[in-house]
Amino acid sequence: MSGRSTHRAPVRLPAGWGHISREFLLPAPEIVAPRLLGKLLARKTTDGWLAGRIVELEAYLGPHITTTPDPAAHSFRGITDRNRVMFGEPGHSYVYFIYGAHFCFNITCEPEGFAGCILVRALEPILGRDLMAANRDISNKNNVSDRDLTSGPGRLCQALDITRPEHNGLNLLSTSSPLQLRDDGFPAPAVEITTRIGIRHAAELPLRFSIAGHPCVSRRTNLRPRRNFAV
């Protein structure tokens, strides 16, 4: 029997992963969303950090937008106990439970009171892939694809073990937060823009943004990607 320990040191965040400023998240969600593609969502656990690269998002407009109403947004009918964090300062997590089965993770944007929000729909696993598979109760972790691991709002929350009771309302820009947004200098990608998925209201709005051609995007489309998305 070998005397070598099987204990693994906790995974740490790379030193080169920088922070995202509050100002970065002040514009409207349809402007912030494509800027967030390629950024990192990191989650601290007792076993170290998990992290994934953001490859797909959907923007949801605040109720102050009267020219293009967005009844699909949770903020559409005003502030409630459920959506209160959306009306606070930008850079916080809004987590909700859907269909009695899944959590969904969102990032607040725009100034306090405006309630812009961005749903993260898919990640590319970067740190802690084995633990993500364990969180999703996937035993054959070596044969599961990255897409099957963290593609889709419910899957990525399960993989990172994000829940509303533990993670709703967190400051994603704080170094002491267990849930953070980070930037490793990933170059601006080609962006594909489509309509949002799985909603009945305002379904025609082109507010879904993804890294063009990325294998972890939750649903393929035939739309032409836009490069260097203008903001």
Automatic annotation (TrEMBL):
InterPro entries per record: Formyl_transferase-like_C_sf, MPG, MPG_sf
> What is the species of this protein?
Acidicapsa dinghuensis
Q: Which domain of life is it from?
A: Bacteria
Q: Which SUPFAM superfamilies match?
A: FMT C-terminal domain-like (SSF50486)
- What family does the entry list? Belongs to the DNA glycosylase MPG family.
The enzyme's main class, written as a single word, is hydrolase
GO MF annotations for this entry? hydrolase activity, acting on glycosyl bonds
Recorded hits in Gene3D superfamilies, A to Z, give: Methylpurine-DNA glycosylase (MPG)
Protein name listed in UniProt? Putative 3-methyladenine DNA glycosylase
Q: Which UniProt keywords apply?
A: DNA damage, DNA repair, Glycosidase, Hydrolase
Look up the EC number in the record and give it: 3.2.2.-
